[in-house]
Sequence to fold (771 residues):
Amino acid sequence: MTSLCYRRLAACLVLAVASFLPSLAQTTRSPVPHQLADSGTFTPNVRPVLAPRPAPAPIRIDGVLDDAGWQEAVRATNFSETFPGDQTRPPIGIEVWTTYDAENLYVAFLIQDDPKAVRVNMSDRDRIWQDDYVGVILDTYGTNAWAYFIASNPIGIQGDTRIINGGDEDDGFDIIFHSDGQVTGTGYQVEMAIPFRSLRFPARPVQSWNINFWITRPRESRNTYSWAAIDRDDPCWLCQLGRIEGIEGAAPAGRLELLPAITGSQAGTLASEARPADGLAQGRLTVDPSFSAKYAFSSNLIADVAVNPDFSQIESDAAQVDVNTTFALFFPERRPFFQEGSELFAQEIQTVYTRSINNPFAVAKLTGRFDRTSFSYVGGVDQDSPVILPFEEESRFVQAGESVSNLLRVKHTFGSSSFVGAMVTDRRFTGTGMAGSTVSLDASLRLSRVYSLQAQLVGSRTAEGTDAGLSEQAGERTFDGTRTAAFDGETYNGWAAYTAFRRNARHWNFDLWYTGRSPTFRAANGFVTQNNIHQAMFFTRYTFYLEKGFLQRLSPELLAGYFWNFEKQRKDEFLRLGVQAQMKGQTYARVRVLVFSNERFAGKDFRGLRRMDAVVESNFSDPVRLGGFVSVGTAIARNLAEPTMGRVLNLELWGAVKPGTRLSLQPNFTFARLTDRDTGDEVFSGYILRVRTSYQFTRRLFLRLVTQYNDFARTLEVDPLLTYKVNPFTALYLGSTHDFRDFREEARGFFAGYYPTGRQIFFKLQYLFRV
Fold:
């Protein structure tokens, strides 16, 4: 189990020469888990069941399992390997203890392994995923729709995600729990206390939940072990969890959570573009209080409100290369307020993108789960409302001022992993008459063990309103025959549809799907960047499992597609072949070849587009992880006044270097170049270099420095940040941002060179009160 997917983000190779800091490993007396059987047939656990008893005495979470409260804990044993082995006996000893009291579910992991080989680092929360780690998977509603994943590395550093859509993970999800651990003479051990008030579960006197225990052991391979056996021929991973039964009296200890915060900042901006050497004009210090509250009517019904919330992100988004794209870029949601119920809003046609609620004065949310039916309502008054205007070959972005948004989602699950749902969104803009609404119906039906059918149908209604300023931002263009992009009072309806037929099995998988969006379809609260398009695609992959030798898994694949617009003009037809490989040394490789693409863009037919790309990533050692991506071939130079065929080279390198157990350097490098295929003239060329350096003083205190240079814009950004984090919601941040720009092409004489263009010094203090 991992919450980190392979990322095609930039990186550069960094030389790191430093002495190793003292090891965190400790040797202490500890209980020893069961020994491995010497012989006999191994039979994995299939849907195993635990029935824990209440703890007879208090348990202190300190990584030492000598409390009397553990004496009657139920033991989970007989774990099986899920990768690279397939339901085979693990080469290490694993035992998990479970008990509970009125406030917490307690879990202890005892791992029998070579302590010198254990990978463990002192790091910030949610940065444990390259270490050894253990975790608890909890589906408290038993619907197989989503589950908590609550994890810790061997010294108690925490990580958590939310598992959704049968295996995808939201790594921005956080809950409060307690953990500690230590490396011992026989391996390592971890204690956890998971407060019931941090979980959502049915209102029943006796709880029965789906559960699994998971261990990840990165060595020569990224070995993973599971208490409940996982069948690779069953795509419903959550359907295969075990059960924990008979938990009595589990209820939140309190209903109210208060999160006051105060943010202060002082900014400086460039005094004169013509004379950058004049320096920055200093602004005044501003202090903004904010307040959020969460009230649990029950464990099934939760209300959240926030007034003047500070929705800024502490760490800026990594820059993306956008010099040859005509569509808006997507950035994931990381703001804690939107975590409750966020899995409900996930749809193929994204009519809700919570980052569109950008800077609200006030926002409220109500989330409920009753048996197999869930709902979530979000309403907010936004002071600066971004709006994406989708068109056939591009999208435009306008800043539309104040708006009021209302979002409602209802979802009902049935069977093992099927559901039906509905979504309504509405956004009204102040003073312009502008409005946008959508109504969506979606469903997923599991037809058999390996086959499933998904569908979504959306209707939209858009009133443009009248605003000369927005018309200027939208630009001059027409769509749907005679309609203009200008905000000139037009009103229209649109639709979008999605359907897919899938096979997901051990070896052979395929996905056949269609998406269509009419020329007048818009999602005022969503992330839809293109309309006037039909897309029909087919993907298939066959996986060979090779458990012996260097190569462990090999997967050839094929992707084919045909796109056309609502005027029945071909927009693209393409065929792509590829192969993926998982190897020892935690090494992953993929090669893909675009055999051909015949795309029609800006009224021109670009036939015979061909490219090849390759990616390799390896976590061959604990101190060093490296990866790279390269793409070469032909592409369209889209942002020229007259688009032309070009030759493209895209290069990405990334890595992580740990000179010690507390220090981490994560360089990222992206290079992109495109030249005219016929003339050889350079259309664009440039790179982005980003290095994230962090040093963890203690579990709560760390220093982070992000340095980013953008060669395309010739800008440099330096962002130091000192953080003291008690838990995900109680923290103190002290930081600053420093922006510089190269004026060599804009200035003359002594003005040439880099000058600061902006600086901000800030602090943020927030504290979570649980009443």
Observations:
- The longest strand covers residues 256-270.
- The two ends are 34 Å apart (CA to CA).
